[in-house]
Design brief:
Largest sheet of chain B: 12 strands, antiparallel, barrel
CATH topology of chain B: Porin
Helix content of chain A: 40-55%
CATH class of chain B: Mainly Beta
Oligomer: heterodimer
Structural class of chain B: mainly beta
CATH architecture of chain B: Beta Barrel
Number of strands of chain A: 5
Number of strands of chain B: 16
Number of helices of chain B: 2
Order of helices and strands of chain A: HHHHHHHHHHHHHHHHHHHEEEHEEH
Distance between the termini of chain A: 89 Å
Largest sheet of chain A: 5 strands, antiparallel
Shape of chain B: globular
Structural class of chain A: mainly alpha
Radius of gyration of chain A: 26 Å
Shape of chain A: globular
Number of domains of chain A: 2
Radius of gyration of chain B: 18 Å
Distance between the termini of chain B: 36 Å
Order of helices and strands of chain B: HEEEEEEEEEEEHEEEEE
Strand content of chain B: over 45%
Helix content of chain B: under 10%
Strand order of the largest sheet of chain A: 1-2-3-5-4
Amino acid sequence: MTRACSHVCARGLTICASLLLVALSIPRPAAAQWSTAYHQFYRQASHNWEFRRNYPAADRLFNAFDYGHAILYETLFTEPNAPTSRLEQREYDFITQRLLVTPPRLPLEESVIEVEYAKLVPEAKEMFEWAHVLHRQVYDIWADERLSTEDKDREVNRLLKHYLARRNAAFSTRPKDMQLMEGQPYSLAFRRRYPKFNGLIWAYHWLQVGLYEPLVTAKSREARQAGVDAAVARFRAMLADPPRSMPTVMPMTAAVAPEFSRRYPEIAIIFDNLHAMHDVISDVLADSAVPRSRKRAEILRAVARYRDDTSSVITVAEWRDMAEEMSADHMGGRAVTPAPRPQTTWTSELVERRLREANIQARPLPPTGPHIFMSIPARRYELAGDELQVFLYPDSASRARDTSKLDRERVAPPNMMIKWRAQPSLIMDGNLAAIIITNDEARRQQVRDALSPLDKPNDR
Amino acid sequence: MLHPPSWRVKHVRRGIGRRIALVAALAVSAGGALDAQTDFYNTSPGRPLRVEDAVPVEYRAVDLNVAPLRLDVMREDTRFWSLHPEATIGILPRTQLQFAMPIGYVDAPTTSTVGVAGLDVSVLRALNMETSIPALAVSGDISLPVGPLGGTATYGTLKGIMTRTLPWARFHGNAQFTAGPSTSSDDPATSAANEGRDLSRWLAGIAVDKTFALHSLLVTAESFAEQPISNGASVAWSAGAGLRYQLDPRWTMDAGIGRRFSGDDPAWYVTFGSAYAVGLR
């Protein structure tokens, strides 16, 4: 090529490309939005990338998960009229037969895969990324064999503070009710249309929270390794016969990784809010009743609800109850099967001791004979104007026979109207059922905390 | 752009191929020992091309470009080597501060010169994150006359940057203007003193890149025009191509090749760089 020719080519290329760039950059006025979201680097620490170093197979799976989430959103947003087979077969097969078999060696730049979605709501994308950083750094801490258990707890608490310092990107540490995820006009649109891909996403979420359980419960490096391997094997088994072998409800951290959730309830709640918001965004994108021009606004509305500490908040005890009622078996199972242990039995002495330890003044009331809807009489206590009714059964099966007949919301049999003096709440654990009747929410929570769960060191 | 001297004193030929191989080998072997990272998706000037994207380094990230190397091969057997160590810090959300101290080595047929070629301090501020509006950023740069190849005057540069992402490629547009005295090509002393500095009166260019996400690889190409800082010099047009590749979560490498087609100093150039990312504690 002569010099003159090169010159002309270079100049022509520049001018043409510049014009193209200007044309492509003119925003569509209706959709134009100004976003000031930003990326933040992970917290620098000695444990950075320890999980990758010690558990490379599991770590690489997470890189593949990045792709699954990204291609899902991009497809739902850019190809709303594509046949369901686009996700249920083509992408599902690619992911399960190729990507999960040979996962990428590095975390993916998701904005390359979900180009249009990333431009639609960078705020939501940044929230996901920041929560995923938290995920990975908690793995790193618990994968670092140089740290003692106390060091790990201290590092996790530091990490949590670091995470929460970005209020615009952090999920709330307050649990949210299922209404937020399943009671909106767009709810369930995704899972009804794409049951297999939805099951795949839930299987991802099962592993993401389930991996913590062997890391925090195992007592040695070898046991941790074996536990992580077992969790990964269980995840792969979920893909064996889709969607039957997959979770049928959203995996909740308190059910899948109960010990991790007891140790770090705030982080477990953050992850549940994260995973619930994943589902909400899938629904908004999949629901044709939400017009394309409203998708961003709807997603930002949901994002705000999962970020604030006020919308649809439930108590931590209710969050645990919800996880228990939804049942770990429907979520893919507990990540670590607990060893059989002797069942602690509630007694009136234990109940009164627990109330005393919680600084609750409980004055026994005289017996009143048979209860109106329970099969055994109640032991009644007066708590500074409020009332607590305690039912102690011979075993948990007897207790379940009574409580399974109740509408838990109203604390009454479905066909019976009862006028309570104040708002009742049902507490259940093992052979115990209790009804706290109060309008004082702090008191209600105090009693809940005192009476559940069992297994404090002095209970036996 | 760098404008190596056209004067000649003594013919000094070196084995270019051997030197490139040596530097590459050193860089790669250092990488094996380190456990490094930077974001392969985030381009910056010279790494590998001149036109950059409108995305700063992440808030609280420190990007260490220890030994980015550039070689310009010009007419009359003149070669210009440049080592461009720099540190970039995400000091605020969407804002980066960068320090760079280029070191130049002019290898002409009859002479050679080596030395620091100025001290650059720059701030880049992203105005937004891309939505239906392209990502926009502005940057300001001060180039101080430090070192034997650092010239005699201070220059200030203001740049506007835009990035637009499409499903099949990303496009970037850069336009910049530099304030400061023009150098005179009639005055060899002044001209020579500014040779090592990366200066042009104005520059405008575009780049396109394509990312292969599953392989952590970015391939890019650019074309730009610039008016050299020296009086009477004609506009120079350049085009280049390059790639960035993520080696591991902290460690990235890049390489590029380009050609200055017109202007007073047509030349081929190649770049090779690597970067290591850490976070602020």
